[in-house]
Amino acid sequence: MEKKNITIYVKVWRQEDANTKGRFQTYTVEDVNPDMSFLEMLDVLNENLIKNDDIPIEFDNDCREGICGMCGVVINGTAHGPKSGTTTCEVRMRQFKDGQTILVEPWRARPFPVIKDLVVDRTAFDRIMSKGGYISVRTGGVPEARSILVPKENADQAMDMAACIGCGACVAACPNASAALFVGAKVSHLGLLPQGRPEAKRRVDRMVVQMDEEGFGACSNHGECEAVCPKEISITAIARMRREFLKAAVG
Amino acid sequence: MRFSMSLFSSIGKKLFMGLSGLMLSGFIVVHLLGNLALLNPDRDPFNKYAHFLTHGLGNAIYVAEFLLAAIFIIHIVYAVAVTWGNWMARPVGYAKVTNAGGTSRKSIASTTMIYGGVLIAIFTVMHLYHFKFGEVIMYTTKDGQQIRDLYAVVYQFFGNIWNTVFYIVVMLILGFHLSHGVWSAFQSLGLNGRRFTPFIQGFGYVFAVIMGVGFIGLPFYIYFLTGGAQ
Ligand code: HEM
Ligand code: FES
């Protein structure tokens, strides 16, 4: 059956640059195919704006298939939109009603300043990563399977943690703008595997210091991060980071 | 990082909050048990217990009081520091916030910890003023001891409806504080597990309800069932 096209009102944050005050502006997008993605709807809106000699709405995106972590915005008050376990680029217009107004805001956090419209500067995450989100030595090619034993449970958990795409939704959704889930995922991912152990203490120490220096809030254990995470990373990551941090602090 | 510095990191601060919060939780359990003696129509057991605490322990009571005050102050100082930092982390707020639901533990309790906490702090000062530093009525127990009749002070105090309502409201808030606080403290200490976390969340709720109902029960009982001052 042919689906009926819908009309959508987009109330979106417009901000010229980091130093200008922003404001919301509402646009009408007619004839939206419900099978379009949310970002395609923004593309259509931008084409209309360009035709009318207006400045298009700036938003980040790259892969449009939920793996690069570029596309995060807050849709109707929820990071990455209403559906759990998905990124903004995976939001489909059939999730909205004909004539609905959709509120679109950028991530809000002091360490994530708005660059333009919906685009924020997330290099704070890169600076945290540069403090230890890696293993310093080249681990070479695939080793003989039994040379380093990894318990199945650790391998599974490490994979769950490695699923983090660094999109920043955890920070955006946290009432405290805390980056605990992001850093927790990185610390856990590497800390659960033997190759990551030698640098575990140094890693957690330096990454936490950088996280604090960037101005992220502390974790109050609300758990909103876990609920919006497109990769559904659990807050057990945060507890693990805390354990690693305490171990590093006392030892 | 130096060990001393790590205590002031975002994780270290929450470690102190969690530890101090759990110690305060332990204290209120003992406090509630002591209060049970107020349900006894005979005033001697409660008054003797109070007398034992203030006069029967020698200098140990001063040490205990000092430690309790220190724990309380640590909890408050870190609470204010942590909350202030959290507010500073988001200078421009959202036009709309929708709770994510699902596995989130965000609740009215979890988002109002600082407000409830400040109320509890103010309450605590008043509470000490009402009872510990309140009126001293001396009387003679059945076995001839001359001690303070704190029992009478409590019953007089809760003969007043406004005192009763105020205490009930604050104890309700304490229950809320604990409904998020208890499991949160364990998570802050890094104690999380597939079996442990659901358990401690359930335990936290039950604990919060027992503490809330327990502390509300006493003023409620005195005002509504005994009519206060006797
Ligand atoms: C009998 C009194 C109190 C008890 C039993 C208690 C207990 C707790 C517990 C167990 C926690 C969890 C700690 C954690 O998440 O790591 C907590 C958190 C908290 N408490 Fe208290 N508390 C009390 C009084 C206060 C007071 C007087 C304040 C004052 C300002 C306060 C403010 C807070 C705040 C703001 C948090 C949340 C910290 C965060 O955002 O992570 N509490 N409390
Ligand atoms: S655009 Fe890559 S995750 Fe959305």
UniProtKB/TrEMBL annotation, chain A:
<dbReference type="GO" id="GO:0009055">
    <property type="term" value="F:electron transfer activity"/>
</dbReference>
<dbReference type="InterPro" id="IPR036010">
    <property type="entry name" value="2Fe-2S_ferredoxin-like_sf"/>
</dbReference>
<comment type="similarity">
    <text>Belongs to the succinate dehydrogenase/fumarate reductase iron-sulfur protein family.</text>
</comment>
<dbReference type="GO" id="GO:0051537">
    <property type="term" value="F:2 iron, 2 sulfur cluster binding"/>
</dbReference>
<dbReference type="GO" id="GO:0008177">
    <property type="term" value="F:succinate dehydrogenase (quinone) activity"/>
</dbReference>
<dbReference type="InterPro" id="IPR009051">
    <property type="entry name" value="Helical_ferredxn"/>
</dbReference>
<keyword id="KW-0408">Iron</keyword>
<keyword id="KW-0004">4Fe-4S</keyword>
<dbReference type="GO" id="GO:0051538">
    <property type="term" value="F:3 iron, 4 sulfur cluster binding"/>
</dbReference>
<dbReference type="InterPro" id="IPR012675">
    <property type="entry name" value="Beta-grasp_dom_sf"/>
</dbReference>
<dbReference type="Pfam" id="PF13085">
    <property type="entry name" value="Fer2_3"/>
</dbReference>
<dbReference type="InterPro" id="IPR004489">
    <property type="entry name" value="Succ_DH/fum_Rdtase_Fe-S"/>
</dbReference>
<keyword id="KW-0560">Oxidoreductase</keyword>
<dbReference type="GO" id="GO:0046872">
    <property type="term" value="F:metal ion binding"/>
</dbReference>
<dbReference type="InterPro" id="IPR001041">
    <property type="entry name" value="2Fe-2S_ferredoxin-type"/>
</dbReference>
<dbReference type="InterPro" id="IPR017900">
    <property type="entry name" value="4Fe4S_Fe_S_CS"/>
</dbReference>
<dbReference type="InterPro" id="IPR017896">
    <property type="entry name" value="4Fe4S_Fe-S-bd"/>
</dbReference>
<feature type="domain" description="2Fe-2S ferredoxin-type">
    <location>
        <begin position="4"/>
        <end position="108"/>
    </location>
</feature>
<dbReference type="InterPro" id="IPR025192">
    <property type="entry name" value="Succ_DH/fum_Rdtase_N"/>
</dbReference>
<keyword id="KW-0479">Metal-binding</keyword>
<dbReference type="InterPro" id="IPR006058">
    <property type="entry name" value="2Fe2S_fd_BS"/>
</dbReference>
<dbReference type="GO" id="GO:0006099">
    <property type="term" value="P:tricarboxylic acid cycle"/>
</dbReference>
UniProtKB/TrEMBL annotation, chain B:
<keyword id="KW-0812">Transmembrane</keyword>
<feature type="transmembrane region" description="Helical">
    <location>
        <begin position="107"/>
        <end position="129"/>
    </location>
</feature>
<dbReference type="GO" id="GO:0016020">
    <property type="term" value="C:membrane"/>
</dbReference>
<keyword id="KW-1133">Transmembrane helix</keyword>
<dbReference type="InterPro" id="IPR011138">
    <property type="entry name" value="Cytochrome_b-558"/>
</dbReference>
<protein>
    <submittedName>
        <fullName>Succinate dehydrogenase cytochrome b subunit</fullName>
    </submittedName>
</protein>
<feature type="transmembrane region" description="Helical">
    <location>
        <begin position="199"/>
        <end position="224"/>
    </location>
</feature>
<keyword id="KW-0472">Membrane</keyword>
<feature type="transmembrane region" description="Helical">
    <location>
        <begin position="150"/>
        <end position="179"/>
    </location>
</feature>
<feature type="transmembrane region" description="Helical">
    <location>
        <begin position="60"/>
        <end position="87"/>
    </location>
</feature>
<dbReference type="InterPro" id="IPR034804">
    <property type="entry name" value="SQR/QFR_C/D"/>
</dbReference>
<feature type="transmembrane region" description="Helical">
    <location>
        <begin position="15"/>
        <end position="39"/>
    </location>
</feature>
